[in-house]
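Final report, closing paragraph on structural work. Over the funding period we assembled a curated collection of sequence-structure pairs, and we close with a single example.
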Amino acid sequence: MTALAAGHLGTDFANGALPALLPFLKDRFSLSYTLAALLMLASTASSSLVQPLFGLWSDRRGAIWLLPTGVAVAGVGIGVAAAMPSYWLVALLVVVSGLGVAAFHPEGSKYAAYTSGEKRASGMSAFSIGGNIGFALGPIAATPLVITLGLGGGVLLAVPCLAIAGALLVLTPFLRTFEPERGARRQGEGEDRRGALVLLLGVIAFRSLAWFGLITFVPLYEVSLGHSTAHGNHLLSLMLLAGGIGTIAAGPLADRLGRRPVLIASLALAAPLTFVFVAVGGIAGAFALCGVGICIIGTFGVTMVMSQEYLPRHIGTASGLSIGLSIGLGGIAAVALGALADTVDLRASLYVCAAAPLAGLLLTLLLPPTRVQRKLEPEVAVP
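Its predicted structure, as stored:
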């Protein structure tokens, strides 16, 4: 699990660096908020919308080589993107980086399911923590690099990703030992519940609208209030690090209390906390933003487990859909939020982010309970 969490850290480190780069890229190319958000869409479309295809590939053929390859491509793509001399070349390399992210996640979450044992939500939370930490470290690393060395120094963002990719390549034979026998894979599986999965994807999409709106516009919003770019990126990192704390708590709570109660509570709290960040600001707003991180990011692993339990015969596909397609819809919505910011102001866009979890909450109340097995056998893996 440690190796998989490290791989998740590497891909999301590359993914998390982009929001921190946006204020610098906005200044360099004189971008509107819409064009800045379009870079987030390029990242999201390539890293999320195509994930179900990688999930299908994983279910049908297996593709463990995507673990080291995905991390390496994600890191090199974002590192080279930072140094590009034109906006459209930046967008192209952001897409390449996103494809690396998309390649890693379904295979990584599948092997995380294989190695989770009895406490599946706890195991998936451990996998998610790697991503949370990586997303938080992205802005922390990118900001001083660019301030010190300029955007060209962003190429150094590829170094940790390449190191992690090398480690995963070495550990591939060990990870293969967790694969279940093909003949035993269908034993103990439940029936796929596609209707429940569709509802869950709607929940994730609304949660992702709030998520992508915040990670895209928190740094830009702080700059619009007269604060420094570094201040905005520090707030973003604080929110992401708080999300790691939420992940640590949410997994065990979901194993003990159930998936739905944890998801309901997190969405119910996320909306007012986001409102406090926008309307009140200051120290209270910073604490509220940390609470938003705990609520929104903390349940990523929980919803991934729920998707796998709703689609137990195709967990690679379920993972690709829950991480990819539904989150990708949130990235598309971020562009609409950028257009709203250009037309009205950033505050209006952030108020939409505050309302989105409430829509997700309504859908969560319609979700059926997941079947939590006493013991997760390897047989829950896909054929």
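The two ends are 22 Å apart (CA to CA). Residues 2-380 form a domain with the Growth Hormone; Chain: A; fold (CATH 1.20.1250.20). We thank the funder for supporting this effort.
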